[in-house]
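[INFO] parsing input record for 20 kDa chaperonin, chloroplastic
[DEBUG] input buffer:
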Amino acid sequence: MKIAEEKTGGGILLPTTAQTKPQGGEVVAVGEGKSIGKNKVDISVKTGTQVVYSKYAGTEVEFNGSNHLILKEDDIVGILETDDVKDLKPLNDRVLIKVAEAEVKTAGGLLLTEASKEKPSIGTVIAAGPGPLDEEGNRKPLSVSPGNTVLFSKYAGNDFKGSDGSDYIALRASDVMAVLS
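[DEBUG] output buffer:
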């Protein structure tokens, strides 16, 4: 489990309330999988894999002097092998969306401050997971695919900032309200 940043890049110390909680880490152990009907389904991640997980997921424990996080497989958003979120490989029913740019001025021409800009709920699907499991342990395909422009629920998912400054969101396919193209 990664640790929270205690100071800014400029060296300013952050109070614990302002520190951003990490959302990624390395898998150090996995369970045996699960049985669905008569089928045994293996866990989607392996030991040593770098993963991204939901912000408030899991239980923090200290084991052998190190902090660890116990997660359910459903709490794992995806696999991230690089430091850039655009390379995220979503798991199960998750999709990664590049969020459209927010409007910088009103229809009347007034410039908007960063705080007054409305968070866009439209974006382009960058990557999609393999789909959820059905009652027999088979994958059900998702209704969205990379390249689709979608409308998504405003308060769903996990927000990320890409290395290029673009905003991304990883959410469940059920939080996609419409495929626009």
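[INFO] The chain has a mean pLDDT of 85.
[INFO] shutting down worker
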